[in-house]
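Morning!

This is the sequence you dropped in the shared folder:
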Amino acid sequence: MIDSVKIDILNFDGNQWLHNSLLEFHVYTNTRTGELGNKLVAKYRGLKFILRESSMCSGAYNCSIEGSLHKYFNRGRNNTTDFDIGQLQDAILEIQKKFNVDPNLAILRNLEVGINLNVPLSAGELIGNLVA
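The structure's back. Tokens below.
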């Protein structure tokens, strides 16, 4: 099953996210110097929506999404349930609608895939028997 992703969104106006009522952006500050970080981050249901100031165009942002699509699908609670391809598609469609993200303009940078196995051992026994 697919879980965590890192996605860059191309040709996207980050101001759409700044004005989206579902997203509340924060900027990180160095507590020693007071220097502001160069990115804005909003967390929503297991995903981080990240805006970085563009070095190419004043007032523009490089936009990305990071986090767990599985957790997003589960309303941000957890990623401990089964998560099939239909649910993945539903999560992507919902993100597309709520945050105006065109999947055709999304570049997948990282993908975490997990599998659930039923084994006749406890987790401790399984880990104890691993050979590296």
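Headline: The longest strand covers residues 36-44.

More detail when I'm at my desk.
O.
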